[in-house]
Amino acid sequence: MPQVPIIMPQLGESIAEARIIRLNVAVGDTVTVDQEVIEVETNKATMGVTTLCGGVVTELRAKEGIEYPVGTLLGFLEASEEEVARTGAPVHGDAPKPTPEKNDEENLHFQLSDQSYEEPKEIEPSVKGLPVPAGTKGANYISPRMRARMDDLGLRGADISAIAGSGAGGRVTVNDLESFLEYVETWPSSKASPMRLAVADAMRRSWTRPLASVGLPVPLDKLLDFRSRQNPKPGLTLYVLRAFALALSEEPATAGFLIGEKVFHPRALDIGVAVQVEDGVMVPVLREVDKKSVSELTQSYAELVQKARERRLPPEEAQGGIATVTNFGTFGLKWGTPIPLPNETLILGLAAGIKTPKWSDEVGAFVPVTETELCLTFDHRVVDGGGAGMLLQKIAQLLQNPEAL
C-alpha cells in the first residue's frame, strides 16, 4: 500500500525550524485527513503538523524535545490507493508532480511530492546566549580573529559585552573569551526556548536605534466608572489601545519608520497588544483600531488574547502592527520603559492604577483619585520629545471621554 510521508511543514514565512513538543499518535494508530499528529513549537507559537490523508501510522522518526528544519521527514503513514487518489497526497517514491499555480488550493498537497524532504537531524538554535558576570571593561572593538571565533560559537556582541578584556583599550581577546567560557562551563544552565531566543533577537535589533521614553500621569476614575456599567466589561487595555489609535489617526507619521532618507507612514492603524506567555511575550494585532469602537473590538480582542496565552496564535494574526500597547500594571508596576519591536516606532505602556490624593478646588480639600502612568517609548529618529508628549496628552484627553471610545 502507498506510504505517505509526514513532513515538517513551512509554519511561517520566516520560520526555518520547529521543536517537537508532543507526538499525538503512535505507530499503528489510525488517523484521518487533517488530523494533528505532532505538536510543535516555533519561535512564535505552538502549532500542529497535520496529515495529508487518512491511513495508519507505520513509522515515526521525530523525537520529542528535538528541533527539526522545515522539510524534514518526520514519519510515514500507510494509506489506501483510493484515499491517496481522493486527497492528492504525495506518495513516497512517486515521480515529482507539477508545481501548482498560485492560489490553486486544490493542488497545495503537490508541493510536498518532489521528495525534497530531509532525514531527521538535530539542529542547534541559530541564536545562543551566555550568562555573563559584571566586568569593569567592555568590548568596544572586535578583531577579525575574535569575530571569526564568535561566529563559530554562534555568539553576538551582546553575549560578550560584560567580559573584562585584557587587550589594548579593554579589548576582549580570543583568550579572554575562551577563559570565560571555561569559567562558566560548570555553572547550572538550561537550553533557551525558541520563544526566549526570538525575544532576545528582537530586542537586540530594537536597541540599535536611539530609543527614548516619556511619561504622563492620567486619572482613570471616569473611565473606570463608565467601564463598570458595561456588560461585558472590556479590558482597560482595550480602552487605552483605542485611544492610542485615535490619537495616531490625527498624526499617523508619528508611527512611521525611517529607512534611509524616507519616513514610511502606516497604511492602516493596526496595533498589537503584548501578552505574557511562558518564557516570553506574544503580540496579537488588532486591525484598523481607529475605525472600530471598543464594543466592536471586544470580542476579537478577547479571542486574540486567548490564542496568544495558549500559544496558538497564527503568524498572520501577529504581523503587520505599527505600534504596541503593553499593560505592565497587571504586575503591580508603577513605571516602566517598554521597548518597541524592531519594525515599530512606538510602544505605549500602562502602569498600575494607584489611589493618589489630589487637591480639589471644588471641595477645598484633597480627594482620592485613581491614577495611572502612561509611558511612551519611541524611536527618536522619527519622533521628538515634544511630539511624543503631545501624543500622550491627546491619549489622556480621549480617556477622559470613554463613551466616545
Summarize the structure in short:
With 405 residues, the protein is α+β, with helices and mostly antiparallel strands. The protein has helices spanning 81-87, 144-153, 174-184, 194-206, 221-228, 236-250, 294-309, 385-399; strands at residues 3-7, 17-23, 30-31, 36-41, 46-50, 55-60, 67-69, 73-78, 211-219, 257-259, 262-264, 271-273, 275-277, 280-282, 285-286, 323-327, 346-350, 354-360, 365-379. The strands form five sheets. Strands 9, 12, 15, 16, 17, 18 and 19 form a seven-stranded mixed beta sheet that branches.
Structural summary, described in words:
The protein is of the alpha+beta class and 405 residues long. The chain folds into three domains: 3-112, Beta Barrel (OB fold (Dihydrolipoamide Acetyltransferase, E2P)); 144-191, no CATH class; 196-202 and 210-404, 2-Layer Sandwich (Chloramphenicol Acetyltransferase). Helices cover 23% and strands 24% of the residues. The protein has helices at residues 81-87, 144-153, 174-184, 194-206, 221-228, 236-250, 294-309, 385-399, and strands at 3-7, 17-23, 30-31, 36-41, 46-50, 55-60, 67-69, 73-78, 211-219, 257-259, 262-264, 271-273, 275-277, 280-282, 285-286, 323-327, 346-350, 354-360, 365-379. A hairpin with a 2-residue loop joins strand 13 and strand 14. Helix 6 crosses helix 8 (385-399). Residues 95-116 and 122-139 have low confidence and may be disordered.
